[in-house]
Design a protein that fits this description.
The complex is a heterotrimer of chains A (420), B (257) and C (156).
Chain A lengths: L7 E5 L11 H24 L7 H25 L8 H4 L6 H37 L5 H13 L8 H34 L11 H38 L10 H40 L4 H11 L1 H21 L5 H23 L11 E5 L8 H5 L2 H21 L10
Antiparallel strand pairs in A: 1-2
Helix pairs in contact in A: 1-2, 1-6, 1-7, 1-11, 1-13, 2-4, 2-13, 4-5, 4-6, 6-7, 7-8, 7-11, 8-10, 9-10, 10-11
Chain B lengths: L2 H16 L2 H4 L16 E6 L8 H9 L12 E8 L4 E4 L13 E2 L5 E2 L6 E9 L8 H4 L6 E3 L5 E3 L9 H5 L6 E2 L6 E2 L5 H4 L6 H5 L5 E5 L6 H8 L15 E4 L7
Parallel strand pairs in B: 1-12
Antiparallel strand pairs in B: 1-11, 2-3, 2-6, 4-5, 7-8, 9-10
Chain C lengths: L6 H20 L4 E3 L3 H4 L1 E3 L1 H7 L8 H5 L3 H9 L7 H5 L18 H8 L41
Classes of the chains: A mainly alpha (420), B alpha+beta (257), C mainly alpha (156).
């Protein structure tokens, strides 16, 4: 069976070689890069523009953005027919291709995020090493931690005020530099699609901008959801500590935490709203413009947009993914729970948008008189349907959380401010 | 060091790090040199002569080791039937590997359509193959340089270098590319490069009993194919993409896409 | 160390150097920009030779004539004279080392590729003598009555 045949059903006149070659992994790829870029932009709002109110969520989203980084590459790797040759993108890059330039931009971006993370956590590394070194008896875990942190300091032990001030400045600069590059990174993901002149649905200069907007939207939404979840866990832990009569274990009370949480969530969802409106406006502009100019491809696009993909586009993406959360967020008296639900719906909406672009762009034939229907492989029966099926998708979606769990051990997201 | 200097130097260093050595080769004087002045392969298809027997498709698959049963093919034949109500009925069952043996139009998942013989205004066959574009969009989008245009104008795929991202398949407006079911790399028609440079015809042109397919050299004024292309009204497919396709068609219709 | 701020940059530089070293080892020497420029001519030159060395399979009827004189002459005089032998018999790659490897396809499918009647006015298809495979002696192979190498009805 040839690649793509397992999940493609052709209808009417479709060319013999046409299949849905870009499937679920390519849906996830811009979704994941979007989350990376969005999370980073959120953290930068604090570091660069000094939006003090976002302080607590800023560090969180930076670490999360770092956890998402390798995951943005994962779908590409899973999608490649020759995954072992993936590095050729770096070795013999062909810059006229958006994918190859993407490799470079991605690496640059990764370096910036890693550096910023280093500057943010250097103080923590050094302090922890000092504490551990002074300990008379260390467990093997602690020794490992000490060695790891020593290595991670890269030999920069200076904790003088001047040095710390430098750290701080560097973070600001890097975050500032990071914003355009994050946008570039994701704009590039949009460019990968927007520049395919053979595809009538994809080819529009708006594509990169649309992608950036929805990237920021999804990134912020994910940060809100994860932030709420981690805060809930913290609250739960504190309560348990209280119950076990170890109130000293935590410096913040559950009440205080709740206050912080509600405040942060409210602030962040305001930014979410702004970017969401921008994203939706651009997407609608695209559709309206296509309908108005109605070039040759419009006949088939109309059938896809208003016909076979109607539910996916207008009900799932715009209705449940955009309109509903918009209402939820705009209604007065925003609660944390409602913000969480709205954010999850937004995430779903952005995912559907990626789906409708990637799969929808392949839903019609180059002949303009045939359709291709996509059937996501649920149960894998070979490598291909494993990689490019539900299992592969879940793998990709689960990885950032697993990574975040481990990264959080190295870069603790919630360093107690009071403990300082 | 001043902070401003730091920023500037960081920016330069990051930008520098982002450009590997290869990128510097972009500025290469050889780029200005024209490709081979004596050879540019072109192809001529006569849609009147084609009878839709599919011998070309079969020969192509056997010559180029594409499994017969795999539902992908380097070349294929399309059938167009235009009825008096102006409707266009088109199909290409299995790429016409076994020819067209029935009047029913194959609609894939939608079944078959019977066409009333008296209603037929036009009925003809259009063989398709790679257009070996002068500006191949598939090459432009290859991220690793695994597909390229040879000096004599043929677009080849390097099976040892292709990473299988599928971008070229997406980038081709003609749908001639696919993944090879055994090598798992991008695959496409290359005008039987191994044959034409030995002075033979392409396998499809060789197999066609009716002379509907011909290979020629655009740079040779005495070449009969070049002569036809120069002196007759020939069309190309989808020139609106700016690809400058090099497969020319006699008797092309606007319905052909 | 005067300023620790450069430390991450050193790591990045080391990374880039590592990539460049790997590149020098892995990428073949003939990989580079060729005649068509960076956009269309960025490739490994050795690959052109690899494609040229691809095995030729179809030989042509002139080759068959060396041994199957009768068949070739018969066919040339017939109304099937323009059909290459290998269209019906498959490519004669290593023939005649292994004669049975060559295909003798006596199925009706082979003949109806051309002979199934299709009423297409703007195609030469309608000028081929056609039959309706469903009614023209179904259940029998065409070659039982027609000689594929010399099908002329007047000589039947």
């Amino acid at each position: 069976m040839v690649h793509g045949e397992a999940w493609t059903v052709k209808e009417f006149f479709v060319l013999p070689n046409e299949y849905i070659y870009w499937s679920i992994q390519i849906v996830l790829y811009p979704f994941m890069t979007g989350l990376v870029a969005g999370a980073f932009v959120l953290s930068s709002l604090y570091h660069v523009f000094g939006v003090e109110k976002l302080k607590d969520i800023a560090r969180f989203s930076l670490v999360f953005s770092f956890a998402l980084l390798p995951v943005a590459m994962m779908p590409l790797m899973l999608h490649l027919q020759q995954p072992l040759r993936g590095t050729y993108v770096m070795l013999t890059p062909h810059f006229t291709s958006a994918i190859s330039a993407f490799g470079i931009v991605f690496m640059t971006y990764a370096c910036i995020v890693a550096s910023e993370l280093w500057f943010v956590y250097r103080q923590h590394f050094v302090e922890t090493v000092h504490v551990l070194r002074d300990k008379p008896q260390r467990s093997s875990g602690e020794t490992l931690r000490m060695n790891l942190y020593s290595a991670l300091t890269l030999g920069a032990w200076d904790l003088s005020d001047k040095a710390l001030h430098r750290d701080h400045k560097a973070v600001t600069w890097l975050a500032g530099l990071g914003i355009p590059i994050a946008c570039f990174l994701h704009g590039y993901a949009g460019f990968i699609f927007g520049s395919v002149k053979a595809n009538a649905l994809w080819m529009t200069p708006l594509m990169p901008v649309i992608f950036i907007m929805s990237a920021v939207v999804s990134g912020i939404a994910l940060c809100i959801v994860c932030y709420i979840v981690t805060m809930e866990i913290r609250k739960w832990r504190i309560k348990r500590a209280w119950r076990k009569k170890h109130p000293g274990a935590c410096s913040l009370t559950a009440e205080e935490l709740r206050g912080v949480q509600a405040f942060e969530v409210k602030m962040t969802s305001r930014y979410l709203l702004i970017f969401m409106v921008l994203a939706v406006v651009l997407e609608l502009l695209d559709i309206i413009f296509r309908g108005y100019t109605a070039v040759k491809s419009w006949d088939i696009l109309r059938e896809v947009i208003y016909g076979i993909d109607f539910t996916k586009i207008f009900v799932l993406q715009y209705g449940i993914g955009n309109l509903l959360p918009l209402v939820l967020l705009l209604l007065p008296g925003l609660t944390v729970r409602r913000a969480a639900i709205a954010s999850m719906l937004v995430l779903f909406g952005v995912f559907m948008m990626r789906w409708n672009v990637v799969i929808g762009g392949q839903a019609f034939s180059l002949t303009f008189s045939g359709f291709m229907h996509y059937h996501l492989p649920i149960i894998p029966h070979n490598m291909e349907t494993f990689k490019e099926g539900l299992t592969g998708a879940l793998l990709v979606m689960g990885t950032p959380f697993a990574l975040f769990y481990f990264l959080n051990k190295i870069f603790p997201v919630f360093i107690d401010e009071k403990a300082r | 060091m001043k902070r401003r200097d730091f920023l500037r130097q960081t920016a330069i260093a990051v930008a520098g790090a982002a450009i590997p050595l290869s990128a510097l080769e972009i500025i290469d004087p050889r780029e200005l040199l024209a490709a081979r002045p004596d050879l540019r392969w072109i192809f001529l298809v006569d849609t009147y002569k084609c009878v839709g027997c599919g011998m070309c498709v079969q020969a192509c698959k056997k010559e180029n080791e594409i499994p017969l049963e795999a539902n992908v093919t380097r070349t294929w034949v399309e059938r167009y039937v235009i009825t008096s109500d102006g409707q266009v009925h088109a199909d290409s069952p299995k790429g016409a590997l076994n020819g067209f043996t029935t009047q029913k139009i194959d609609l894939n998942a939608a079944g078959e359509r019977k066409i009333d013989e008296g209603q037929i205004e036009q009925g003809f066959f259009v063989p398709k193959l790679c257009n070996q574009c002068e500006n191949p969009p598939c090459v432009q989008v290859c991220p690793v340089g695994a597909t390229y245009k040879t000096p004599d104008g043929i677009v080849l795929v390097d099976r040892k270098w292709c990473i299988g991202c599928g971008y070229c398949i997406m980038g081709c407006p003609y749908g001639v590319r696919f993944f090879h079911p055994e090598y798992h790399v991008a695959e496409k028609c290359n005008f039987c490069y191994h044959r034409i440079h030995k002075g033979m015809q392409t396998a499809c042109a060789f197999a066609c009993p009716f002379g509907a397919r011909e290979i020629g050299n655009l740079k040779d004024p005495n070449d009969p194919v070049t002569h036809t292309v120069m002196t007759q009204r020939v069309g190309v497919l989808k020139d609106e993409f700016g690809t400058k396709p090099q497969v020319f068609y006699i008797g092309l219709n606007k319905e052909v896409r | 160390m005067k300023n620790h701020i450069w430390r991450p940059l050193l790591v990045v530089i080391a990374l880039v150097l590592a990539i460049l070293i790997v590149r020098a080892i892995v990428v073949p020497d003939d990989f580079g920009v060729h005649e068509a420029g960076y956009m269309y001519g960025w490739y490994r030159e050795g690959n052109i030779e690899e494609w040229k060395d691809f095995k030729v399979k179809y030989q042509g009827s002139a080759y068959c004539a060396g041994c199957h004189v009768d068949k070739v002459e018969d066919r040339e005089r017939s109304r099937h004279g323009f059909i290459e032998c290998e269209n019906c018999h498959g490519p004669a790659i290593d023939h005649p080392e292994d004669p049975p490897a060559l295909n003798i396809d006596t199925s009706r499918e082979l003949c109806i590729r051309c002979h199934s009647w299709l009423p297409y006015p703007t195609s030469d298809r309608s000028s081929i003598p056609g039959i309706d495979p469903a009614t023209h002696n179904p259940d029998m192979e065409c070659v039982m009555c027609h000689d594929p190498h010399h099908p002329n009805l007047e000589d039947m």
